[in-house]
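CHKov2, Drosophila melanogaster. C-alpha cells?
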Amino acid sequence: MFDAELDMYDHLIPELEDLYAKNTSISPKFKPVHLKFPGKPVKSDYILLEDLRKKGYRNADRTQGLEQFEVEAVLKKLAQWHAASAKRVVELGEYEKDIRESYFTTEHQKLLDEFNINFCMPFLECMQQYNLEPGQLVLISDYTSQLTDLNIEFGKNDPLELSVLNHGDFWCNNFMFKYKNASEVEDVCFVDFQLPKYGTPAQDLLCILMTSPKFSIKLDKFDYFIEYYHQQLVEHLTMLNYNRNAPTLSKFHAHLHRYSLWAFICAQRMLPIVLLPPDVGSHIGNVMGNSEEAIAFKRKMFLLPAYVDQIKVILPWLINRGYIR
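C-alpha cells:
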C-alpha cells in the first residue's frame, strides 16, 4: 500500500494535473503538496505532506453527512479526476498491472473469502432486526453468499466501457473542503491514495453516494447526483479532447446497474464505520478481523441506532433498484 500511495503522489497525480495544464484553461489540484527532506536519503519510508489546515481546508463531520452543495463540489472534483485519468491512458498508456487488478482477482480469493465471512456473519445476524420482509432477508442472504465471485467479476475491466483511475476509498474522511462561506465550497482536496484501482467509475461514485451525504438527501437525490456527476464527467472529457467511449446518461445508469455490487459493499461495510462515534474499539483489527472481540465489535457496529435507521431503508431501496439481485 505504501509504495502504491507514494507512486500516486510522485507520478500519477502530477500526470493528471499536467493534462489539464497542457490541454485546458483550468488547473485543478488533486493532492496536498508532497514534500521531501533535503540532503541525504532518509533511512525509513515516509510521505511528507503540507498541512492543508493552514490553507483553510478541513474535513466535514462524517457522522452528520454532507449537504447537497458539498456533495456537488466533491462530485465535480471527482469527475475532473476521472476524466483526466481516462485521458492519461490515451496519452501515456496503460496503468501498471497492480492498479488495473488491485485485489479483485482469483489470486486474492482466500483473502476475499475471509473478508466476506468476517463481515457477513455478524451482518446477517443483525439484519434480523432491520424490519425487512422475509423475501428480502432471503434475497440478501443469498446475495452475500456470492460476494467473492461478484468481487472478482467487479474488478474485471471491460474495454468497451469507460474505465477510470479510482481513488479506491472515496468517503468523506478522504477529502477536505475549503469553504468560501457557509453554503459554498471553494475547493476540495483528496488525501489517502493507498487503494487506487483502474476500472469502473462506479467504485468511487457509489462509495461516496452510499456513505457520505446526509441521509435526508442520500436516496432522494441519488439520481440527481448521478446526473450531476455524469454531466461534469462528459464536460471534462470534452475539455480534455477525449474522444473514446464516454457513455450517455442512460448507458451510464445501465453501467452502474451492472457494477452495483459496490453500493451494497459500501452500505454494509463502510457506512457503519462512517456513522460510528469515536470509539476505542474501532481499530483496524476489529474492523477486519475475526476474533471474538472483532465479531462483537462488528455486531455493535451493525446495531448502532444511526446505522440501523439508514440500512433498514437502504437495503429495500437497493433491492427495488435491482442493485441487489
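The first strand starts at residue 34 and ends at 35.
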